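Exercise 7.
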Amino acid sequence: NNICGKLDINDLKMVSETDYYHLNNLNVTSGYDNRRHYLCLTSDFGNIELTGHYDYASLPASFLKMLKKHMPTMPGLPQQTPTADNNFSIAVTLTKSDWLNKFLGVDLALLKPLELTGNVNDSNGELTFSLNGKSFEYNGKQYGNSRLNMISTNDNMTATASITQANSNGRNITYNIDAIAADNRLTTSLSWKNNGTGTKEK
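Solution. The predicted structure, written as C-alpha cells, is:
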C-alpha cells in the first residue's frame, strides 16, 4: 500500500500456436502528492486513476461494510462487519477489451469506451459509483445505453441500472432496475420496454 515508483512495459508480444496478443505500452506510476496516495495506469486499453487514502486488500470490504449496515441479515454477507478505513476516488476509462478475452476468456467487445467513476469514504459511510457503457457486444449480442448508478449514505443505499439489448428484428429491449436498501429491507423494481411497449413488476 505504500509502493512508490514507475513501471513501463512497451511492445509486449505474446505468441502461441493458436493465439497472438500485442500490447504497445502500459505505464504505471504510484506515489504521494500532498500526502494523498495515487496510482495511475495508462495503456492501449485505457486509463485508471486511484487517488486518496486506501488499502488495496480492504477495497471490497468498504462496499460490504456499507451494505451490511443497511442489510445486516442479508444472506451471503460476513457475520462480522468488515473493517475498512478508505477514503478515495477512482476513475476508469476502458477503450479496448481484447485483453479480457485473451487472459480471462470474457467474450466482450467494446464498440465505444466504458467509463467508471466512484468515491468512497468509510468514515462517514458514503459511496457513489457510476458506470456507463454506450455500446458493446457480449457473447455475440449487442448492447448499448447501459448505466449503473449507486449511492450509499447513512440513511440508505440506492442503485439504478438500465441497459438496451439490440435484436436482429429491430425490436430493441430496454431493461431498468431500481433498488433501495434501508432498515434491513430491500425494495426492488424491474421494468422493460419493447419498441415502446412496457411492463413493470415489483
